[in-house]
Amino acid sequence: MFSAILLIFSLYLKNSSVKNFVLVKAPLTNEADYLLLHLDPDLPDDKREFKPFFHYAVTLKRRGYAPATNKLYCEHVGRFIDFVYEASKTNFPADVEVTIASIIYSYEAYLLFGKDATNPIARKLAESLNKEKPTSQKSLSETIEASISLFYTVSAARNEFEPDHLFSPFYTCRVEYRTQYEVSARKAKSWLAAVIRDSFKSVMPKKKKNTLFPQAKRRNRKNDKAAFKTIAYPIEKSVDLVRQVKPRMSKTFYRDMTLYSFLAATGARTSEALQIRMPDIDSDEFRIFLRDPFARNTPGLTEDEYGLLKWKGRETELTFMTEPFASIFWENLEKYLNLEYNFSVGHDFLFQNSDGRPLFTSDRSSRNKTFKKYAQKAGLLDITNISLHSLRHMYGTYTLNYMPVPAQSAPGLPMTYVKILMGHASISSTMKYAKHDTDIIEAYIQHANQHVTKRGENSFMSIREEFHIRQLEALRGEIKRIKGAEND
């Protein structure tokens, strides 16, 4: 009976890594368009169909997806189930933690890196499933993410995450292997129970709501015990920072100045700037684009390097560069590419470490330490709470409060424009970086303090005299204006 079904309805999954199941076209009278059947010859015919997949396929059909989309989603979920099933009959080394959760979390590394994965579960299963061709990041973030997320949602709604329902039937084929899971049974059961209670979003990484594959976690300031201490880089010292003389022995000076001038010119997040790639640079139009690294392939990265990519979300890809930092950036970029950049590496990220690997993989504290060193050389006496992110604060402060605007009496762009410049999704985010009152007051106080310090402790009398002189000059100017009006 089973052989006859395969001959009439079989539609093998296209990916060569699928070996434990077959996706078949269901009879026209069936509620679903596709069925997923075990290929184990020892199973009786009435045990071959994977029922959780059937309910998923029914949901797809009822939603009215296009036939091509329906088929693609079924293929993605079929491969995912095959991956989990293969893990159930694989003997992993004793030092590898194997739970339902760890297997599922390994699927991303399996897809993106295959046999080159550093994740031991992903690497071993890539070998046993003969995973040769890496899956594109675009496919992962779009159709694969959506199809598996829907599978989880449908299964959770039917309470099929109980250990005796969703994936646990796999382990009945290998009783001797099932005991390996009993060691972590409590942990696995807890994970599955959380899925039923709060849907799978409660245990999945918080890249966005209801997503399966992890990306960088955004810092949640609501839970901070200490205040956010990074302060804006002093505007009056900013040009000196990126106009320094190159130290004789430095091998990364122009790289650092290129990075600093770009951050000052655009207000970009440091993580966004560090992930600029060569195709993002339009030297003809003098434009730089900041693009989501998870929305495109990233050739040349190792699995560990890929795991360090970050993206907090940006509404605009195009950067809007302010002078004089824009001109300084392009000057430094040319010198960096001609004198320091290594073109013979396997990736196309703009900013590199000394060994040629992407700079975003380096230690953040080390990058900030270098930045503080250059800040001191530029004449900044107090480097407390100064970091690379200070240049973003400075950009927000400048564009909101000080930037000259044609046909406008007061300087500064409207808050809605600053929001676009900084790539924020909401005005509230912009307000955190550029605060009208406090930043202006701080700038005034800092300027006054420098003025007093320069002239000495006994300068208050002269400051008061200068005030009255300015007042007299203003009065004379007003009297002159009135007399001129009377003569007209």
Q: Please give the domain count.
A: 3
Q: Distance N terminus to C terminus?
A: 110 Å
Principal-axis shape equals elongated
Largest β-sheet summary: 2 strands, antiparallel
CA-atom Rg in angstroms: 31 Å
Oligomeric organization of the protein chains: single chain
- Helical amount: 40-55%
**β-strand number:** 4
The helix/strand series, from N terminus to C terminus, equals HEEHHHHHHHHHHHEEHHHHHHHH
Characterization of the model:
With 488 residues, this protein is mostly helical. The strands form two sheets. The chain has a two-stranded antiparallel ribbon with strand order 1-2. A two-stranded antiparallel ribbon has the order 3-4. The chain has helices spanning 2-9, 51-63, 67-88, 100-105, 107-113, 120-128, 137-157, 175-182, 185-198, 235-242, 253-266, 270-274, 303-306, 325-339, 364-377, 390-402, 415-421, 427-433, 436-455, 460-487; strands at 21-25, 34-38, 281-282, 287-288. The protein has three domains: 2-202, no CATH class; 235-435, hpI Integrase, Chain A (Orthogonal Bundle); 456-487. It has 20 helices and four strands. It is elongated. The longest helix is centred in the last third of the chain and has 28 residues, at 460-487. Helix 5 (107-113) crosses helix 6 (120-128), helix 11 packs antiparallel against helix 14 (325-339) and helix 11 (253-266) packs parallel to helix 16 (390-402). Helices cover 50% and strands 3% of the residues.
